[in-house]
Amino acid sequence: MISRKTKYALQALGCLAEHASGEPMLIADLAERERIPRKYLEAILVALRKGGVLTSRAGRGGGYQLAAPAGEITLARVVAILDGDIAPLPCLADTNPVRCDECADLDTCGTRLVMLEVKRTVSATLDGLTLADLVERARDARARRRGTPDFSI
Amino acid sequence: MISRKTKYALQALGCLAEHASGEPMLIADLAERERIPRKYLEAILVALRKGGVLTSRAGRGGGYQLAAPAGEITLARVVAILDGDIAPLPCLADTNPVRCDECADLDTCGTRLVMLEVKRTVSATLDGLTLADLVERARDARARRRGTPDFSI
DNA sequence: TAAAAGTCTATCGATATTATAGACATATTT
DNA sequence: AAATATGTCTATAATATCGATAGACTTTTA
Question: Is A114 in contact with B107 (Cβ distance < 8 A)?
């Protein structure tokens, strides 16, 4: 389960990725279009900027932009910034792993070993998906519903 | 991230799976061996019994047993019993999906579409792992550490 | 220098999780 | 049938986390 925070982030990033022109977008616009509480979105965007995924410009004509092409920003990165490690168990976290005190032996804990496998799978999937995929699938879905392939318009 | 509840469940189930003889095990023993708060474990075992993974017998000589061979109990099933759906988004839950009210259109939400992929991956992984795998990996890890393959003893 | 924009800090309430306690019911052995 | 060992249920408390909001502050550009 990803947090609502991360979901909001993906929506906002998707919106920025679709926003063809390189023009920065305003927090207020993003909040309205994606129906995200303004102040909450603010905090999310700051985190993303600190995480290197967004750049911002203050002052008139300012706003937020992607810091890289959509195809280079992985979901893994976004999730890591907002939800931190996706480790299924605290003892499997990449940064700051916390060993369970009920576990006598970390390396031979069966639960940990199988969950490590789950973690690897999730990581691989999130690493293989980018904002470009997100945008593309939404576009495909819209096209499919209209009954016309996207490129035939 | 799986809950601590599910982690406790997997440890207890692993313990039962290793417990060679078909004899039932007592809650108190399980709690002590796996260092799980006794009363908390109690609630977990009840849930697992209701979920069909365990059987229990009251009275003297009673206790808990696996309801099926370890190789037939998947992690997916255990996680589902204790943590419910593993859906990364509420709108992707199998049972009782809740659509986000900020989403105008469920079927063309890019975030949902990419997360659906993540969910499928996780489900497939958890479906492919059983308690027997859990036990086996722990055994392998112990053997590997001793520097001797398990079968050479 | 004023307006428009982003940044930071604090706080609140709701909810879920983890944990505990104790009364109650059931089954086995003697 | 009594005694004892065992599981079951309900309620509650402590804690942590998440989602959300408010307001003062800083920076940039026209």
Answer: no
B19, B118, B127, B136: best to mutate for the A interface, most A CBs within 10 A = B118
The tens digit of pLDDT for each residue in B75-84 reads: 999 999 998 8
Q: How far, in Å, CA of B15 to CA of B5, rounded?
A: 15
Distance CA B149, CA B153 (A): 8
Looking at the complex, does the CB of residue A3 fall below 8 Å from at least one CB of chain B?
A: no
Per-residue pLDDT, A152: 45
Residue B47 identity: A
Q: What are the pLDDT digits (tens) for A24-81?
A: 899 999 999 899 999 999 999 999 999 999 999 888 888 899 999 999 999 999 999 9
Report how far residue B33's alpha carbon sits from residue B10's, in angstroms, rounded to the nearest whole number. Answer: 13
User: B10-47 burial by CB neighbour count: b if 16+ within 10 A, else e?
Assistant: bbbbbbbbebeeeebbebeebbeebebeeeebeebbeb
Could you tell me which residues come within 8 angstroms of residue B89 by beta carbon, excluding any fewer than 6 positions away? A1, A2, A7, B100, B111, B112, B115
Q: What ipTM score was computed for the predicted complex, to two decimals?
A: 0.89
pLDDT of residue A125: 96
Q: How close A112 gets to chain B, by Cα (Å)?
A: 9
Check CB contact of A95 with chain B, cutoff 8 Å.
no
Contacts of B113 in chain A (CB under 8 A): 134, 137-138, 141
pLDDT for the residue numbered A153: 43
Asked if residue B25 lies in contact with residue B19, where contact means CB atoms within 8 angstroms, the answer is: yes
Q: Choosing among B105, B135, B137, B142, which should be mutated to test the A contact, i.e. which has the most A CBs within 10 A?
A: B137
Q: Which nucleotide is nearest, taking the CA of residue B1 and each C1'? A: C17
Mean of the per-residue pLDDT values of chain A = 89
Chain B environment of A117 (Cβ under 8 Å): 125, 129
